[in-house]
Amino acid sequence: MTAAAPRGEDAGQRVRTRLVLTVVGLVTLASLGLSSLAYVLVARSLQAEVLDRALEEARFNVEVLATERLDEVVRPGDIEASGLADDFQRRGVAVYVDLGAGPGDDFVSGLDVVNVPAVVSTELRRSVEEGRVAAEWTDLEGGPHLVVAARRPPTGPDFYFVTDVSDTQRALVQLRLVLLGASLALILLGAVAGRRGARLAGSLADSVAELTAARERERRFVADVSHELRTPVTALVQEADELTARVEELPADTRRVVELLDGDVHRLRDLVEELLELSRLDTTDVAAETEVDELDVGRFLGAIVARRAPQAAVEVPTGLRVRTDRRRLERVVANLVDNAHEHAAGAGMTVTARTDDATLVIEVADRGPGGPGDQLERIFDRFSKADTARGRGGSGLGLAIVRAHARVLGATVTARNRDGGGLAVTVRLPVEVVAEP
Fold it and tell me: Can you give the residue range of the structural domain that contains 390?
């Protein structure tokens, strides 16, 4: 009998050892798996956020500011003379402007790198030459940076905007350390729980509950980072563009399919972009990001309309200048013009602006089908279906984005049906009036 006891104790010890190893192994796999997943999602989210903002800033600087302030031919010194250099410096924008005359004559602001085009990849320069806005992660000035390049249409110059992402990289390093520490803590906790056989069931139940809660948090997190759709959608758009470029080579019965595919893919891309913008407006302290600047209302509206709906008429008193957030106002007006162009193309559009005391009143009016008179306020809701008469092809998010940006600006947006047919959307924005006609 005395000889059997040690064997029983040895068997029990083996069971306890196996149980501890099993629990530790499971906790290790679960904690490292969840930590790795969380790190990947957070890293992608941070990098995508930096990229989205950099691309949006680059498009705004090139398509709005540069188009508004620079002549068709840009010579050395024009950047400073136009006030664009002061604007870049005031906003802390690091930029290299390739004027095509040689590195010594190019414009550089906020950079120690002498010639950015010489240190970026050939693919990035080729994308700029083809008229696309492109981005590249690279090491500049001894640290990680994001370079976004764009050409002012149609002939230049080429702008290279450089963003220091070392803070993002440091945040990711700290995140790795935190997740590693949390994983080690969970592993130690699992080892202790495995040794305490009497409390094993409760410990496992707690672990399951913690894992379930963590999984639910991950689901919510994945839902919040919907911008992950951008990569596959971008690939689809490029593939659709390649098919469209060769549509004449396809059989006649296939061309219609390619045309439908191209339209659907581009609408999907627009939907993803609008969802991302709404997500940023919902989750970011956007009010802290407003940048008040002085602008010539006539030139500002004229640049937007010329780019998005050249056939539209612009009626603004000459010399009207105000101070407001130029970028957010551009998003409001651009979406209103796009909405009118989408639903009333060819039916006439007029963009007007005037001041009412310290309020800038902008109205975008069209001669389209208008909307249901008793449900006009619902057209600013997300995915609104109230505007059935004007419901062709839109995502239902454009006017929701208008209202979101308007709230940040302290503006009000209203819609009304016009006499004789059509819709008019009015934005009343409190501003500082600098000069009036």
Answer: 290-435
